[in-house]
Design brief:
The structure holds two protein chains of two kinds.
Chain A lengths: L10 H10 L2 H18 L1 H4 L6 E4 L2 E3 L1 H10 L20 E3 L34 H37 L1 H16 L2 H11 L4 H11 L2 H15 L2 H8 L4 H37 L11 H10 L4 H29 L7
Antiparallel strand pairs in A: 1-2, 1-3
Chain B lengths: L1 H28 L4 H5 L3 H7 L4 H17 L6 H13 L13 H36 L4 H15 L2 H12 L24 H39 L2 H8 L4 H13 L1 H24 L5 H10 L3 H29 L11
Helix pairs in contact in B: 1-14, 3-4, 6-7, 6-9, 6-12, 6-14, 7-9, 8-9, 8-12, 9-11, 9-12, 12-13, 12-14, 13-14
The chains are: A mainly alpha, B mainly alpha.
Chain lengths: 339, 343
């Protein structure tokens, strides 16, 4: 499928050149990168611990130390164990721009309006909304990896088997597709997530387990098409094993369209997760996700900031992934080339 | 044709059994016990609150009795077999929550959800097809790009957000009061009202839920229509039609539109199951007593018979939808022979 447009250009650099021409898709890519930035540096952007602190004539780097503690290689000095850093009588300290934790409860400021101290306001337990949204980006990002990763593996394996072997294998796997199409997926998800103990990673895994059918059908159709190409017949005639033909010879050529489903799948998974946490299913009570903030807003409709901001975060993230996915589709689709 | 339909129904059978088996196993194998939930925290709570061993024994006995009453103490395969046997008599058992027959509950709720979904599908096609026609006949124009972007924005708009936003800003509270925040009819609604008043009240209540259920589908369907129509527009017979001097309107609406409507039928099958899932959120937000709300509450209460019944009914509806759209497709397009649609 490699397109050499006369200058010896590789396939992926050609795709990238096509992708760059689509301004909306590039904007989407920037937004996704921004989300990665938020998620990776969430602890440094919103945290109730200071970056740097001078206390009792000693120097501390509490945020960094908390990483060490979490990894098990360090521990808190006794004078800093379970303290509120903001009330500590330190000589000097530098706090992050948003000096709150996402789940830091402060019952003195419930439902505070967006203001100088709380940029986006607080919820009913006085948790800072900005911190919640920044740390919530981690969950949106992990959904991409966990849920879509799982559905990708299942989808590619089943799709490849059905498309490559055909006959009764295809018949059985196609019944499985039909089953997944007919079953009310969202209701299935709610049922599983509500019955299992609340855990965001379990929820993501369940989303992955119930959303592979699109990728599988895509892979199957690609395999059906490529399987009859001459080079595959040649490989089989040469006695290459089925597994090698499937995964070494066919899969790389079938992967490009699957990439599109990955980007669209991440967007869909984020939407589904927001729906679940909105219904209050699958999210532990102390975890703040974008959907769970919306859930709280439903019963306190005067607190408009609890509706507007987390929803906008979900919306922007989903839109960004869709734009990237559509940009990829246009860049990869040979039929649109040159038009 | 009848042979084909019979074949399809035979193939549906394993699918249907599979769905019921999956939903059955999920509920029975998941940790947790409906009996304990019903007893309010059960033995753990009883032990924690310091109830004597003797009384705990009594609680234990009551729970065992309750389980026996619903057959929960038998082996799993026998429970499933009994469920399947009762299904043929349209008996879904009784709800754990209030001991009412589940079948009656479903019958009460089903019309509401079906009404919402049919109105929504109608709205989706009503909006998406003209949009698709416009985009295809004006492709890559400014208007097409604006339509596409707008469709994308709607597609990415989380329904939970749109729903809560509508509830917060449009349904009373501190902001505008344009639409009712809950229910399907006003409290004082009565069948004695004049027809016009009844209709107005229902439209007023259904407007937001139906719109919220539909808007995300506008994008997918109008894009699909656009692609399909562009494909037809590049066919030879369209060039012939233009060459013989037909007006553009006639070419588009008489020759192209008919043929590009065909694939739209197939889409119906794929929207149907999704809509029932989507209505869970909408029905919860607007407190609409439909199947989605019933299912959500049943799941939370571990009301196994009700959950099973909802799985069964909605997957049956979806399977019938798939079959119907296959039959419709062969009726509108005789080129597609029965049983030859495997790809």
């Amino acid at each position: 499928m490699a397109v050499n447009s006369g200058r010896g250009e590789g396939y992926w650099s050609y795709v990238w050149r096509q992708f760059k021409r689509n301004r909306l898709a590039v904007m989407g890519l920037y937004a996704v990168m921004g989300l990665f930035f938020l998620a990776i540096f969430a602890d440094f952007l919103a945290n109730d611990k200071p970056y740097y602190m001078r206390y009792q004539d000693r120097t501390y780097f509490p945020i960094f130390r908390s990483y060490l503690v979490r990894l098990g290689v360090g521990s808190w000095p006794l004078e800093l164990l379970n303290v509120n850093f903001k009330e500590l009588d330190s000589q000097r300290s530098i706090f992050p721009p948003i000096p709150y934790r996402s789940n830091g409860i402060d019952l003195t400021v419930p439902f505070s309006n967006p203001s100088q101290t709380h940029w986006l306001g607080t919820d009913k337990l006085g948790r800072d909304l900005m911190a919640g949204i920044i740390h919530g980006s981690r969950i949106s990002l992990s959904i991409g990896f966990v849920a879509v990763g799982i559905s990708l593996v299942i989808g590619i394996v089943l799709g490849a088997l059905a498309g490559f072997f055909g006959s009764w294998v295809d018949l059985v796997i196609s019944r499985l597709f039909e089953l997944m199409l007919a079953i009310p997926t969202f209701f299935l998800l709610i049922t599983i997530a509500a019955l299992l103990p609340p855990s965001i990673f379990l929820t993501m895994a369940v989303i992955g387990l119930t959303s592979w059918v699109g990728i599988a059908r895509f892979t199957r159709n690609e395999f059906l098409r490529i399987r009859n190409l001459d080079y595959v017949t040649a490989a089989i005639a040469l006695g290459v094993s089925s597994r090698k033909v499937m995964f070494r010879h066919i899969l790389p050529n079938a992967l490009a369209p699957v990439m599109v489903s990955v980007a669209l799948g991440i967007a869909a998974a984020i939407l589904v997760e927001s729906g679940l946490s909105f219904l209050g299913i699958g999210v532990p009570a102390d975890l703040v996700t974008w959907g769970s903030i919306l859930n709280e807003a439903r019963s306190n409709s005067f607190a408009w900031w609890l509706v507007v901001f987390p929803g906008a975060a979900i919306f922007i993230t989903v839109l960004a992934y869709y734009l990237v996915g559509e940009g990829l589709r246009d860049a990869l689709d040979p039929r649109l080339r040159g038009s | 044709m009848w042979r084909y339909i019979f074949q399809r129904i035979l193939l549906f059978l394993p699918t249907f059994i599979g769905i019921t088996l999956i939903s059955f196993l999920i509920m029975r194998l998941a940790p947790g016990d409906p009996a304990e939930l019903l007893a309010g925290g059960g033995l753990a709570a009883a032990g924690a609150s310091g109830i004597s061993l003797e009384k705990r024994g009594a609680v234990d006995q009551a729970l065992a009795q309750w389980r026996a009453q619903y057959g929960l103490d038998r082996p799993l395969h026998i429970q499933y077999g009994m469920w399947l046997k009762n299904l043929f008599a349209l008996d879904f058992g009784v709800s754990f929550k209030d001991n009412q027959p589940v079948f009656g509950k479903i019958l009460d709720r089903l019309p509401v959800t079906i009404k919402l979904n049919i109105l929504s599908i109608f709205l989706v096609y009503l909006v998406a097809i003209p949009l698709g026609i416009y985009s295809a006949t004006h492709s890559y124009s400014f208007g097409d790009q604006v339509t596409t972007l707008f469709a994308f924005i709607l597609f990415s708009l989380p329904v939970v957000w749109a729903g809560t936003m509508a509830l917060t800003f449009l349904c009373g509270g501190d902001f505008f009061y344009l639409f009712p925040p809950a229910g399907l009819t006003s409290i004082d609604y009565s069948p004695n009202w004049p027809l016009w008043e009844r209709l107005k009240d229902q439209v007023w209540h259904l407007f937001l839920p139906v719109l919220l259920l539909s808007y995300a589908q506008f994008a997918g369907l109008s894009r699909y229509m656009r692609t399909g129509m562009r494909e037809v527009l590049s066919q030879d017979y369209v060039r012939t039609a233009r060459a013989k001097g037909l007006s553009e309107t006639k070419v588009v609406y008489k020759h192209v539109l008919r043929n590009s409507l065909i694939p739209m039928v197939t889409i119906l099958a794929s929207i149907l199951p999704g809509l029932i899932g989507g209505s869970i959120i909408i029905e919860t937000i607007f407190s609409i007593p439909g199947l989605g709300q019933l299912g959500y509450q049943a799941v939370l209460a571990r009301d196994y018979p009700t959950v099973m019944a909802i799985f069964t009914v909605s997957s049956l509806l979806a399977l019938v939808g798939i079959l119907l759209s296959d039959i419709l497709l062969t009726m509108v397009d005789p080129r597609i022979a029965f049983g030859r649609r495997e790809q």
